[in-house]
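To fix ideas, we quote verbatim one protein's residues and fold tokens.
>
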Amino acid sequence: MHATANNVFFDTNVLLYLLSADDEKADRAESLLASGGMISVQVLNEFASVASRKLGLSYLEIRDVLEPIRTICAIEPLGLETHDSGLRIAERYGFSIYDSLIVAAALIAGCGTLYSEDLQDGQTIDGRLVVRNPFAMR
């Protein structure tokens, strides 16, 4: 089954490859994002934090990178439902709370695919969300 743009969710680590010197991964991330998908407010926050702290981008540069992402992707808000679901997922699957909040947002948004480099490629969560590492060799 191929993921379609309206049912894919992007983890922060995939978006950060847009800024990578690894051209192959940057191109793959750009190609996936060009079709659209979903992200959460948490993804935006984590992206800004890493881009500022680890990559040394100014907030103006960060806004410039995020603007087209925010246009292409639908954004799932963070709320109490995401928090409660994230806690349940962390407890059940042993993920970090931050990874669990990403998973929770993807599930709440009704996505069937989560593109992430941090979780196990091919793992199915709650019987309806499949983790895919977009950089894994297939």
In short: DSSP finds six helices and six strands in the chain. The chain has a mean pLDDT of 94. The longest strand covers residues 37-40.
